[in-house]
């Protein structure tokens, strides 16, 4: 089977593209777990858009550029911001249940925004958008869904991408998925870090595959650390949405002092890099807490039902207790470079969402611009990818060696942990110039070991760990290249 479009990843951008492009040809979605399991699914905050009469496109553009320290691509930012209201309407039309205040959408606040402009579905906006999109995707006759299928490498022949080599992780065999256009929608690489608030699937597979195929990768030093992830011994690094601070939560140190007041005029709602570093510094003297106990219990439970329940399971009552927090890796601002239509430098290869670099985020992403980016740039890519598919003729068959796919050694889990620890300690929130070259050498030695192990066969853990090593090296090289601190790259 040769598909018109091969979509790798099933987050919001991949699903949105699949629905639109399926009107023009056959689509295969390969996703390494279930369709619902993606970074998008865990997005709590919401989706930014100018929807209030007192707000303006200019203000949203200015906030995005300020957060990005003006390293953004201004055209990409303008495009994204001006498309936002139409994207919200599109989501409403397919059944997304945003919260409302009477007739209007209820808009919340997040760090770096000069207005309340975040449309949200309680505190689980990504899940709600995924639900609505999946409902549509499952019904479309042109869309073929392959769950438990992990893309291993892109197939590039005659200087064009013609699909991917894919591992069926249940049947344990490798097969080529051929396609006229291949679309990376595989999300970011938060799992590169020991402390991260991403799902386990966020292993940077798309960035690593694209880099190996010769795609241009940009801005990998800009890894965003979310200021407030749960910091409770033995419990997951669960994200505590910035919208909690948007609704009045404050940050206090072990002595109960509110330390953000002295750091930035926007206090707890300063851009994320500033809040994350302030917490990191404060933690040298003791734990840091997020505190929303001054708001009414009924309000907290109604506004943050998902977070309230999760914390309850971890033994914390959000309406009565302060919540111990610490920063965690959250978002990959860089990635596979594309133009405004999702095109990479490899013909036939397109990318959007967190795996991609359109330049829209600059040195630091503004909160709740990511789901928006997913919607806007996946839609932007459709006409270009359709035109490409119509212009390429056929795709040649490829032979692959599908034997020897089961890998039996057991130490890969330890190698993964080692990469995560190295990155957290040496290429994390604060980077030290004099450590980065040694760190790079260590990572390259790990990469060599993984390359050797792959000769014996490959399984999911090995493939993902190799991708993590490749991405860790890209981040470290980019951090070495950028000599001055800016946005979420802080170097001393
Ligand atoms: C959050 O809810 O704090 C995350 C939203 C985002 O990263 O944009």
Automatic annotation (TrEMBL):
Source domain of life: Bacteria
Annotated FAD-dependent oxidoreductase 2 FAD-binding domain residues: 4-371
A biological process from GO: NAD+ biosynthetic process
Enzyme Commission number(s) from the entry: 1.4.3.16
Protein's UniProt keywords contain Flavoprotein: yes
Annotated InterPro entries: FAD-dep_OxRdtase_2_FAD-bd (IPR003953), FAD/NAD-bd_sf (IPR036188), Fum_R/Succ_DH_flav-like_C_sf (IPR037099), Fum_Rdtase/Succ_DH_flav-like_C (IPR015939), NadB (IPR005288), Succ_DH/fumarate_Rdtase_cat_sf (IPR027477)
Subcellular location: Cytoplasm
Boundaries of every Fumarate reductase/succinate dehydrogenase flavoprotein-like C-terminal domain copy: 417-490
Pathway: Cofactor biosynthesis; NAD(+) biosynthesis; iminoaspartate from L-aspartate (oxidase route): step 1/1
GO molecular function per UniProt: L-aspartate oxidase activity
Catalytic activity: L-aspartate + O2 = iminosuccinate + H2O2
Signal peptide: none
Essential cofactor(s): FAD
Top-level EC class as recorded in UniProt: oxidoreductase
Protein family per UniProt: Belongs to the FAD-dependent oxidoreductase 2 family. NadB subfamily.
Protein name in the entry: L-aspartate oxidase
């Amino acid at each position: 089977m040769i598909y018109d479009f091969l979509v790798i990843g099933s987050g919001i951008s991949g699903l949105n593209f699949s629905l639109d492009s399926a009107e023009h040809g056959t689509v295969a979605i390969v996703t390494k777990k279930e369709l619902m399991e993606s970074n998008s699914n865990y997005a709590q905050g919401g989706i930014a858009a100018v929807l209030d009469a007192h707000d303006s496109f200019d203000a949203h553009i200015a906030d995005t550029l300020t957060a990005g320290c003006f390293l953004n691509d201004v055209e990409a930012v303008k495009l994204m911001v001006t498309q936002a209201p139409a994207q919200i309407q599109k989501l409403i039309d397919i059944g997304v249940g945003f919260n409302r205040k009477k007739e209007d959408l209820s808009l919340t606040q997040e760090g770096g925004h000069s207005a309340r402009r975040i449309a949200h579905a309680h505190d689980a906006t990504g899940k709600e958008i995924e639900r609505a999109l999946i409902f549509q995707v499952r019904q479309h006759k042109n869309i073929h869904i392959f769950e438990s299928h992990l893309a291993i490498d892109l197939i590039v022949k005659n200087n064009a991408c013609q699909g991917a080599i894919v591992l069926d992780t249940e049947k344990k065999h490798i097969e080529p998925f051929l396609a006229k256009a291949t679309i990376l929608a595989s999300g970011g690489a938060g799992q590169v870090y020991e402390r991260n608030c991403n799902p386990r699937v966020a292993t940077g597979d798309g960035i690593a595959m694209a880099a190996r195929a010769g795609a241009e990768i940009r801005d990998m030093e800009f890894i965003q650390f979310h200021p407030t992830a749960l910091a409770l011994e033995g419990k997951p690094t669960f994200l505590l949405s910035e919208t909690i601070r948007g609704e009045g939560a404050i940050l206090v140190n072990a002595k109960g002092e509110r330390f953000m007041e002295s750091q930035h005029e926007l206090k707890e709602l300063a851009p994320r890099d500033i809040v994350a570093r302030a917490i990191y510094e404060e933690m040298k003297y003791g734990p840091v807490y997020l505190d929303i106990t001054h708001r009414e219990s009924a309000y907290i439970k109604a506004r943050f039902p998902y977070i309230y329940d999760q914390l309850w399971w971890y033994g914390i009552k959000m309406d009565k207790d302060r919540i111990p927090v610490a920063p965690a890796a959250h978002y990959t601002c860089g990635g596979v470079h594309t133009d405004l239509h999702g095109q990479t430098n490899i013909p036939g290869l397109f990318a959007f969402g967190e795996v991609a670099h359109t330049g829209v985020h600059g040195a630091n992403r503004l909160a709740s611009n990511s789901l928006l980016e997913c919607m806007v740039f996946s839609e932007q890519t459709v006409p270009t990818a359709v035109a490409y598919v119509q212009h390429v003729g056929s795709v040649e068959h490829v032979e692959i060696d599908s034997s020897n796919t089961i890998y039996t050694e057991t130490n890969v889990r330890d190698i993964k942990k080692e990469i995560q620890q190295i990155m957290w300690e040496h290429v994390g929130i604060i980077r030290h110039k004099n450590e980065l070259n040694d760190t790079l050498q260590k990572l390259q030695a790990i990469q060599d070991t993984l390359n050797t192990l792959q000769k014996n066969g490959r399984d999911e853990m090995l493939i993902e760990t190799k991708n993590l090593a490749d991405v860790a090296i890209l981040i470290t090289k980019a951090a070495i290249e950028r000599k001055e601190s800016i946005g979420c790259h802080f170097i001393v």
